[in-house]
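User: ok so my PI wants both of these folded by tonight, can you help

Assistant: No problem, let's get them done. Here's the first:
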Amino acid sequence: MVAALGLGTLGTDLFGSSAANIPDVDTPVTLLTEYGGPPVLTHDAAPGIAYERPRVQVLVRAKDYRLARQRIEGLVQGLARVVNQTVLGARYQRLELVSGPVDVGLDGKGRAQVTANLQAYKGVSP
């Protein structure tokens, strides 16, 4: 979704999952890791699941804290603009910030790391 919205380039500065092979560079890189959210939502007018509510942790790493912070704030603002849109075949009612951005310290090479957590309200995936 982030790449589809023009907020990064998959495999260059944008990576998904904890198993991603992130290059050892000082330029800003973003890692997206999906995790479980609260229970699904149902609707009285129709049986079944109305919305899934997965969460995603966004981690930005950069040589400089200011760059990491700017990048993650841009990502959060861009994702918050997703309202009633279909992205890559999935219908998103909205995405909302759950926590962050938060400075989580330096990595093993002294690069700044900043995270934010978002929750999606999305239609059930086929």
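One down. Here's the second:
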Amino acid sequence: MRRIALTLLGAMLLALLSASVSGCGCGCTSPADSSWTPPPITSEQAATSAAKFAGVPSMSAQLAIGPSGRSWYQATAADAVAFVDGESGVVLEVVLADQMPNDATVRVATVHARAVAEAFLRHAGLGTYDLAESAQVVNGGGVAAYQVSWLDSGAVATPRLRILVNPSTGAVFAFADLRSQPNLTPPIIGRTRATELAIGALGIAGETVTSAELAMTFTESGQESTWQVGLGIPSATQADVYERGALVSVDAVTGLATIVKS
């Protein structure tokens, strides 16, 4: 099963809990501060809430320090990740990598995108109350997605909840709660499209994808999501051996590809 490699960073990254979690790409150690106390929400509670919200059988959760020094849990499963507030237990973000779009095809009508987004919120037990709903198609890196938002109905229409829908399949692939963390920017570019962009950026004939992992990082200024794509040329004499290994980082929102190693 493919695993998403995720890293949760803050402007001042603190240490993580000692228990390692499958799919975590960082080394996990005990908090260095002897005065540290755990948040009210446990890892088991965070994992259960995240799995229910994401609609997957189960997830594993690990504590980290999120933006502004807040305690966040990072919950992971195969092709799914969620972030949970350690103080309140609120699920702040969910990304379902296997449902992300890989092209700009729009087969689903706007009314359907709104309907599946609303159904997702109902399943999560969230109400929109007096928020105004808005739906639009957003584009990045040759990929399209429906962005369904619920905004304040006042003079300043500030987004409070956001859901992203694959316009080709009609499936929800991301959710962000912007009420307490307005700088969340979920990725929209899927694995297949990211690997195409990586191969195109490298420009070497015969390159084969050896790995593709989604990394989501946070700073005080916001969120960055990238696909870390490993490439290589298959050996002519040895099975499962690749020559000329390369690594390309692809921005999962804009599609910008940066060669890290060639």
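The mean pLDDT is 84. The two ends are 27 Å apart (CA to CA). Good luck tonight!
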